[in-house]
Design a protein that fits this description.
Elements (H helix, E strand, L loop, with lengths): L6 H18 L5 H14 L4 E11 L2 E13 L4 E2 L1
Antiparallel strand pairs: 1-2, 2-3
Helix pairs in contact: 1-2
Amino acid sequence: MTELLFKDEVYAIVGAALEVHRCLGSGFLEPVYQEALEVEYRIRELPFEAQKPWGYCTKTNLCARSTWATSFTMERSSLS
């Protein structure tokens, strides 16, 4: 069995998401969960950047529109 990379970071992020889901349950639109996750990350002192613009491309073309992602920057990793 292979070892999980960035185990501590992954557990911290997933744990925060599970706590938000435990508290709120299902049925809300994405902005509600986004704000709740931001609060939970602050409580857990997880460094992040909320609603950071993120460009994407298809094959070799950069798309004109961009989407938004929450970025996490930890000591050893950068996750989006």
